[in-house]
Amino acid sequence: MMAPPAPFSGSYAGEDVQFLLKPIAIENTPLHVKEALIQSGQKHYSEMLSREPLPSEDYVRLFYRALELNGMRMAGHLWHLAERIKATRPHGIVLVSLARAGTPIGVLLKHVLKRYFGVEAPHYSVSIVRDFGIDRNALRYILQRHAPRELTFIDGWTAKGVIARELATSLQQFADEYGVDVPAELYVLADLSGEASVAASSEDYLIPSCLLNATVSGLISRTVFNRHPAHAGDFHGCYFYREFSRHDFSNYFIARILHYVEQIRLEGNEAGCSLSPVPAEQLKAQSRQWLERIGRHYGVGNSHYIKPGIGESTRVLLRREAGLLLLKDLHSESTRHLHWLATAKNVPIELADDLPYRAAALIKEVTLSP
User: Fold this and answer.
1) Under 8 Å CB-to-CB from 150, ≥6 apart: which residues?
2) Is there a contact between 282 and 306 (Cβ–Cβ < 8 Å)?
3) DSSP 255-288
4) pTM for this one?
């Protein structure tokens, strides 16, 4: 087996993260073509990329507003996640963020753990793909350097809990095959589905980094999975948006949130942001019942087309073909960017005041033209 490619750090500082991803050149697949190929079963979503556009000035202003609105809250949640990580990893901490949404959170936790808890935690970012699991080559790379019990998986949020369950399944398969038990514990800022092991919140709140794609994630694309890589040792792939360097917010975002963390420490407000999630079983039941109800009401047979929460709704509007946006409050500050995106793309918006989340999006069902 050939050695995997060397890790790289994207647009982050080298000490902040090692992406266990292989930068690749990949053909642009137009959004409507990609959606049709996914829904027809001809290709898996992870095999294609649609070119990301740069955010407009109006949309960037919404990102700045989101930082003002929820930067302090996010900082408090990071603090408490760091506390829980230190308590649950007494023998050492290795942060393993799930690319891409988990990466900024992992970078921030690395800084918080070092600056305020005196812990030097290596940080890797790896790919995990629905239906195919975690990148085994990346996992083996980490396990050659660190003890299994030190691995600490990080993501931004859970929506339906698909990735949390995918992580547990793939780590169990890895244990069965190689006899190495890695804790399938996921740490997130917001857990809507009750599937995370530790969460700072169970509320659907606006995590500012969810507004942007590559330009808040080290200029890295969503990960790409090649079922037949040229080399058996390859990591999953990604496209590195080097051409977006002048428009990159990745390090600005880290610095801004760390400023809020410092404010919380100086003001002694850590307790005001304490963990208070709803019990996991209650969240799981709520998620299951809501998915069934929405599926019946809108005639959606595949739950993959239903995306609950602000974070997932944003992803749909940024990189999928959206069919409908549901909002709990049409005038909420937390969903202003969703309203903007939907309006810009002519996606219908419906008020759903009984929604257990602030937002949800339905993917449009499409077909390829003959």
Assistant:
1) 89, 91, 92, 93, 94
2) no
3) HHHHHHHHHHHHHT-GGGG---PPPHHHHHHHHH
4) 0.94
